[in-house]
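Action item from last week, closing it out:
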Amino acid sequence: MPANSALRRAFAVVTALPLLTLAACGYGSDAEETPAQQKVAAGAEKIDGLDSVKIGYFGNLTHGTALVGVQKGFFQKALGATEAKYQIFNAGPSEIEALNSGSIDIGWIGPSPAINGYTKSKGTNLRIIGGSASGGVKLVVNPDKIKSLKDVKGKRIATPQLGNTQDVALLNWIAEQGWKVDAESGKGDVSVVRTDNKVTPDAYKSGSIDGAWVPEPTASKLVAEGAKVLLDEADLWPDKKFVITNIIVSQKFLKEHPKAVEAVLKASVETNKWINANPDEAKKAANTRLGLDSGKELKPEVLDPAWKSIQFTDDPLAATLNTEAQHAVKAGLLEDPRLDGIYDLTLLNKVLAAAGESSVDDAGLGAK
């Protein structure tokens, strides 16, 4: 089998299968409800006649819009008497499967799973309808072993998953240094070690990795263990902005229930506005939600620097998504994707206009 075919097959498996650890509870685990989530305004009506809207997100700080919106009840308020139901995911492939099956209607997700899901379905399963966050990704290393960027050569650097957003970013950065790595095996001038974010701190403490290219809060967890930040990925992008979290919706749900989608987008815009106006309160709300979802809140030495490195924005930063897709192509992990139509920002721009905010652009990748 040609190497590229093997790569694509491995990549397809990674992006298609839900995590086995989530199988017992469907595609994701249900979020614990709080009084703020359950509160429905007196006289509120159901939107689009729906009993519920099912929303998915990750227990990561880069999904802070969802964490805060859930915790503070913004989504439930916008949906009126239609119940907001939540599922938590650990990886993009399982969330895409949940969207495809109808287990969720709308989700917060990273760019690579959105690209993979869209291209795999030949553009039939999802649309990106809004932005959520930028930044929050760092290369952190053992300062005793790596003192400069050139010292990364020959070392073992972890990423969360073969073909995920950070894996693609690291492979592209390695190529830009003039070094060679086989994308599938991770072997070469740098050893790319695919390691679940949950175990990356232990892998670092044991010495089995020398560093990691990871999102928050994993990066700050490593720093708390003595690692240092060697590179902030934001420094590699124009204006230091790149998409790390999008909002997606199933095309079927968007077509049949636009008022419900608009309500969720309205809540997302309100949440981001509140986060940016109240950063300390928002950080606390996000951490409380993480504690409820995972059973453990982050310590201040991890939470504070992690939260500071993330920008919350309604702009999906569409041009950077297209660039990330081309990085995956260059790495051999993705055939040249057809992303035309992946965005539909009509409802988001309607919400932004009503809020007196500027419209956002789809970089020519909008639905016709």
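Closing note: The chain is about 40% helix and 15% strand.
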